[in-house]
Write a structure and sequence with these properties.
- By secondary structure, the chain is mostly beta strands.
- The chain has one helix and 25 strands.
- 1% of the residues lie in helices and 42% in strands.
């Protein structure tokens, strides 16, 4: 039996933010009655582009036939129509400043499920400092309430009760089964001017779950069933201690994305989940983060994959989340790894003779990524 595991970061979302200061005397708003009244609140008009992208200078994906996350419906989906996102502003000390108030959303792509670019407009408080941070939350089950300016912190939001999501087996995403996301970016020396659009750059979003795939190759043995043993029944929508983009975007596939795991207390579930067969011989499941290691050493209750073949259903073959061959000089063969958010763990399985020695290999490869920088308003 031969296993070829591909463990790589999922492609990150990118959010392109632009801010335009409009003359308050000329601003108008519709109160829903059909009458247009002056908008007298001290707010700044905000334009938001959401796109699938990667910063210039990032390494290119290695050769190979890899899904770029656009081939699977809802894997890049943000539920904007139902208010499934928040854009929050914080000062440089990670203290809350203001919340984006959405007014209009437009999908710029022809297919909503695969569109990689969106345009959102709305407002934010005008009394913003020139240096601040933008935090984007998406697809959370609920969002932070009663935020206090100058008091509530990014850490408070990321570890709050409403930053937790309850998990059950998910192998096919849908409008009711979406992946929570989080991103943050520093914006410095920003001057808001009347009717001038100021680009704020790109905010990369981390998914809160990992994708685990098992694929069978052509051969005499056919995969009947795949199970994931041990998982977490809860997860955090946001990572821990990520206060700057540099904490998870490092322009290096070996280092992207976030290296720490963020797991709620009491989340462990000692049971098995079946992976869904989304195509012949192709099994998938999306799961929260899971800790397999402590200081680089494997710990008890590790997560494993159990594979059964149609030719012998009475035997389950165990596959660990570890490096079966050394990926670099710094990582020894047999080193276990955690299941981390925003990663895709792909195992390609080739079953040979029944008594053949197992040959397992794990490659660390990222999802492919694309650059999209549309003109605002186009």
């Amino acid at each position: 039996m031969t296993f070829f595991g591909k463990h790589r970061p999922l492609v990150a979302f990118a959010v392109w933010l632009l801010v335009a200061m409009l003359a308050l005397s000329s601003c108008i708003m519709d109160d829903g009655s059909g009458d247009v009244a002056p908008d007298t609140d001290a707010r700044v008009q905000v334009g938001l582009h959401i796109s699938l992208g990667t910063p210039a200078g990032a390494a290119k994906v290695p050769a190979g036939n890899y899904d770029d996350a656009t081939a699977t419906a809802y894997e890049n989906f943000i539920d904007i129509e139902n208010g499934g996102y928040r854009v929050l502003f914080f000062d440089m000390d990670n203290r809350y400043l203001a919340t984006f108030e959405p007014q209009k959303f437009t999908a710029l792509g022809s297919d909503r499920l695969t569109s990689k670019t969106y345009e959102v407009t709305g407002k934010v408080d005008a009394d913003m400092p020139s240096n601040f941070k933008v935090v984007v939350l998406a697809n959370w089950p609920s969002y932070p309430q009663n935020l206090v300016r100058g008091v509530t912190t990014v850490a408070d939001i990321c570890s709050a009760d409403n930053a937790r999501f309850s998990y059950h087996s998910i192998y096919q995403l849908s409008p009711s089964e979406l992946i929570p996301m989080y991103g943050i970016k520093e914006c410095k020396n920003v001057t808001l001017r009347d009717k001038i659009i100021v680009p704020l750059g790109t905010v990369h979003l981390l998914r809160a779950m990992a994708k685990v795939e098992v694929l069978g190759t052509e051969g005499p043995w056919t995969i009947e069933e795949v199970k994931l043993h041990n998982y977490n029944g809860f997860g955090y929508c946001a990572p821990a201690d990520v206060f700057n983009e540099a904490d998870y975007v490092r322009y290096d596939y070996a280092l992207d994305f976030n290296t720490n795991i963020h797991i709620p207390t009491g989340a462990f579930m000692q049971s098995a989940l079946s992976l869904g067969e989304v195509a012949s011989g192709h099994f998938v499941i999306y799961v929260p983060e899971y800790q397999n290691t402590l200081n680089g050493i494997g710990i008890g209750n590790k997560a494993t994959l159990g594979i059964r073949f149609k030719e012998r259903t009475d035997k389950e073959y165990a596959v660990d989340f570890k490096y079966y061959q050394s990926p670099s000089a710094d990582v020894a063969q047999g080193t276990p790894f955690d299941i981390r958010r925003n990663y895709d763990y792909r195992f390609v399985v080739n079953k040979l003779e029944e008594e053949a020695e197992l040959n397992l290999n794990v490659d660390v490869l990222p999802y492919n990524q694309y650059d999209l920088y549309p003109e605002f308003g186009q």
